[in-house]
Every structure is written in structure tokens, then in C-alpha cells.
Amino acid sequence: MSNSQLRWPAVLTLVASLISFLACGSQSNPPAIVVTFTSGFTPPSEMTLSEQCGVAATVTNDIKSQGVKWTAACGSADCGAFTPTSKSASAVPITYTSPATAPSGGTVTLTATSVTDPTKSISSSPITIGSASSGCVAP
Which pTM does this prediction carry? Predict the structure, then answer.
């Protein structure tokens, strides 16, 4: 066997390894989606009955740019409402209106959940609903 015939298997192995390396490198996972409250539009700590406040959430690394779905949780059937819908684009304020009557337990928690990845969300601290208002930003 000549020297050139002995080198072909080594060259083929090198080429196959290079192709495999390049293919694996191009299949990297995108960064994880992160949901945070948007500065200037964080949920308030206290709201009066039927008060309207602007809230917003920023979704980082969302390649589909689908924004967030908002929910309000409390100990009653009426936990307030979001308008015009319960979905907003990343960093775009939405209006939350507190319930007309104080909920059982006296608090509401707001949650913004990524539409693209529903396992990623952020929840507010419990918001006291009653006669005082603190931290509410006009919608």
C-alpha cells in the first residue's frame, strides 16, 4: 500500500468528525424565556374597589413575540378584570380593574404567563383590595 492509500481513511474520519461537530454546533437551544414586570408598570400593593391600574410584563427571549396572558386570582369568584383583553404584547401596559367588592381574604394576585412557553410566568405579591391605594399607575 502506498502512503496516499493509508491517508484516505484518516482524511475521511477527519471530514466526518468536522461535519458532525458543525452539525451539533448549529442545533443549540435558544435562551430560556424570562417573564418580568415592566419597570414603571409593576402591580400595586393596594387598590381601592373598582380601581383601574396599568400593569405590564416584559418577555425576554421570546422568538415568537406572543406576549403574555394575564390572570387574577383571589378567594372569590370576582377577582377583577383586564381590558381590553387578558393578553398583552411584551412591555405593553394593560388595564387591570380591581373587583367591585372586596374578595374573600382581601387580596388579589396578578400573574403574567408567557403565551409561547406557559411554564414561564411571574406573579405579583398579594394586592390588598379595600379603601387604600398604593403604587397604582394610571392605565
Answer: 0.80
Measure the CA–CA gap between 1 and 77, rounded to whole angstroms.
Answer: 85
Q: Alpha-carbon distance 112 to 130, whole Å?
A: 23
Q: Give the CATH fold of the 34-130 domain.
A: Immunoglobulin-like (2.60.40)
Question: Where is 8: in which H helix or E strand?
Answer: helix 3-25
20-39 pLDDT, tens digit each: 444 455 567 889 999 999 99
CA dihedral sign of residues 125, 131, 137, 139? positive
DSSP label at residue 33:
P
The span from the CA of 83 to the CA of 31, in Å, is 31
- Domain boundaries along the sequence of the chain: 34-130
How far is residue 78's CA from residue 52's CA, in Å, rounded to a whole number?
15
Cβ neighbours of residue 100 under 8 Å, at least 6 residues apart? 49, 50, 78
Ramachandran bin of 106, using left for φ above 0, alpha for ψ from -120 to 50, beta for the remaining angles: left
Using only the alpha carbons of the chain, give its radius of gyration.
26
DSSP single-letter state for residue 125: P
CB 111 within 8 A of CB 73: yes
